[in-house]
Amino acid sequence: MRITGSQFALRTWLESDAVSLQKHANNVNISKYLFDRFPYPYQLSDAEKFISSKLDQDPVVNFAIEIDGEVAGGIGLELRQDVYRKTPLLGYWLSEQHWSKGIMPEAVKLVTDYAFENLDIICIVANAFGHNPKSMKVLEKAGFVRQGIIKQCAIKYDEVYDEHVFALHRK
């Protein structure tokens, strides 16, 4: 599967993506904004394990962000269960060398459009730590609306952060 953006493509993961994934993901300036399951340092074995977990997706909900022929980021939906079964959680990251080029708002919009067209969902939720205003701006540019702030609820690198909750509803 491939979805083409103006400067990039969103596509399914390939085993051959491991080297470029490790190269671009191995950055503390990326990992500090993500869940702890995104490690730093980011080793080649981390890349291989992640890609292996995404090879047989059905439905496809996690995409490599390909720029100039290599993986420079990732974006995906975490399908949830129980009362959240129709409300997936959005997550994304992009290589620091591609920040501030308008790539992420467009990628978020493409993924959310794809999700609402192809999945039985009613809403997409995304969270951003309080120390990450650029991610909040990405979400707002993609049409997400801030729903609220959960004060001092997340710990990353021994710092306690607020979590800003955003949502985009099916139209």
TrEMBL record:
The UniProt entry, under PROSITE patterns, shows: GNAT
Q: Mind telling me which InterPro entries this protein's record contains?
A: Acyl_CoA_acyltransferase, GNAT_dom
Q: Name one Pfam family in it.
A: Acetyltransf_3
What residues does the N-acetyltransferase domain cover?
A: 17-167
Where does the chain cross the membrane? Answer: none
Q: What is this protein called?
A: GNAT family protein
